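User: Can you predict the 3D structure for this chain?
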Amino acid sequence: MTAITELKKLAEATAPGPWEFKNDGYVYCQSTGEKVCSPHSTLHDSEKISAHIKDVKRKGKFIAAANPATILQMIALIEQMGDALECHADIGVVAEKALAAYKEMK
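Assistant: Here is the predicted structure, written as structure tokens:
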């Protein structure tokens, strides 16, 4: 199974997007209210905790943006580009290299 196929399978099997990062440090599925992921920390030093909270917020926002709906849209675009390259593979070496790269990902 290729990376794209596996990613598509995982995206289809999890809570749909959009996802949202909330101030409690959790990422939630907006349509179901389900907690998608949560921060875990065993830190005790207040300075380290503060840095950890900033890091969790930054990562949480990214995780929320990289929800299944977004991933599936990206995969569909990659597939469309691959299909277009297959139709136009005769236009030259550049297209052939791009097509070969696409087929390796598939």
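The chain has two domains: 1-14+72-106, 17-66. The CA atoms of residues 46 and 52 lie 10 Å apart.
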